């Protein structure tokens, strides 16, 4: 197992500044664990609280970004603001945002805005459910194509793909995907990426998995599946789970 990226997607779980600070302190301690790189993705207010002045090995991601390029956009948070706060990554197209009506075209615009400001997009894709004829594969292909087709060849190389099957999100380790199915999905995603990336770059593109990753299944999912890391939701804000989960990869 080479180095793994763990992105802690706090979603809207964290409500108090003290809790946010505690989770960062824990992450800083865990950043000493070998072969693991940690990224915290707090909601906007807590990103603003924690990211400025951060000099630790822990990096920050935003959970979303505005497609706006002008200041007259009430309620939006622009990519430049995120970068200036100290974010390095931004999650785009999370299924919980797509469920609010976010289209493939909007996700693509967000990815472009992020890249234009030097942020690395973590593009979430994933099927709602599986059908026996594997038609869900074409949904994944469409989600990838809508973003990669509008990016320049150079921009494409920076995108991190997070495969998050919607049916596996927010449940328990036992409801997650199994390692061999995950391996097949990673191969499929790299195959689609090969149409957009030159030479052998698709083999090196970063592909993460998310959906009920917990301490009990992370190691099994990492071994042999070809993933480069994980997007972790509920377990990332559970103090009893996050430490063991990170250490399980060491
Ligand atoms: P979960 O969420 O780990 O709670 O399933 C993952 C995600 O939605 O990113």
Overall description:
- The protein has 250 residues and is of the alpha/beta class.
- It has helices at residues 17-30, 44-50, 79-85, 95-98, 104-116, 136-148, 153-158, 179-193, 201-204, 218-222, 239-247; strands spanning 4-9, 36-41, 59-62, 89-92, 120-125, 160-163, 207-210, 229-232.
- The model has no long low-confidence stretch (mean pLDDT 96).
- Helix 6 crosses helix 8.
- The protein binds 2-phosphoglycolic acid.
- Residues 9, 164, 169-170, 210-213, 231-235 line the site of 2-phosphoglycolic acid.
- 2-phosphoglycolic acid (PGA) binds next to strand 8.
Unreliable runs, pLDDT <50, ≥5 residues?
none
Bound compounds: 2-phosphoglycolic acid
Overall 3D form: globular
Please report which band the strand proportion falls in: under 5%, 5-15%, 15-25%, 25-35%, 35-45% or over 45%.
Answer: 15-25%
Distance between the ends = 9 Å
Q: What is Rg?
A: 17 Å
What is the helix fraction of residues, given as a range?
A: 25-40%
How can the largest sheet be summarized? 8 strands, parallel, barrel
Give me the secondary-structure category: alpha/beta
How many strands?
Answer: 8
Number of DSSP helices? 11
List its salient traits.
alpha/beta; eight-stranded parallel beta barrel; 8 strands; 250 residues; globular; binds 2-phosphoglycolic acid; 11 helices
């Amino acid at each position: 197992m080479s180095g793994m990226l763990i992105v802690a997607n706090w979603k809207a779980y964290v409500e108090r500044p003290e809790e946010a600070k505690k989770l960062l302190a824990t992450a800083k301690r865990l950043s000493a664990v070998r072969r693991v790189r940690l990224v915290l993705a707090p909601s906007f207010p807590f990103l603003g609280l924690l990211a400025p002045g951060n000099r630790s090995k822990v990096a920050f991601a935003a959970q979303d970004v505005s497609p706006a390029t002008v200041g007259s956009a009430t309620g939006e948070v622009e990519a430049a603001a995120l970068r200036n706060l100290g974010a390095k990554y931004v999650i785009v197209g999370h299924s919980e945002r797509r469920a609010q009506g976010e289209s493939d075209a909007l996700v693509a615009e967000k990815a472009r805005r992020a890249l234009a400001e030097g942020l690395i997009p973590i593009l979430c894709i994933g099927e709602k459910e599986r059908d026996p004829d594997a038609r869900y594969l074409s949904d994944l292909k469409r989600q990838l194509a809508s973003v990669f087709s509008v990016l320049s060849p150079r921009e494409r190389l920076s995108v991190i793909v997070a495969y998050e099957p919607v049916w596996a999100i927010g449940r328990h380790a036992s409801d997650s995907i199994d390692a061999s199915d995950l391996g097949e999905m990673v191969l499929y995603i790299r195959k689609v990426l090969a149409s957009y990336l030159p030479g052998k770059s698709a083999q090196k593109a970063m592909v993460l998995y998310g959906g009920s990753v917990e301490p009990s299944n992370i190691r099994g999912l990492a071994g042999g599946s070809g993933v480069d890391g994980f997007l972790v939701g509920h377990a990332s804000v559970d103090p009893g789970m996050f430490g063991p989960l990170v250490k399980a990869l060491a």
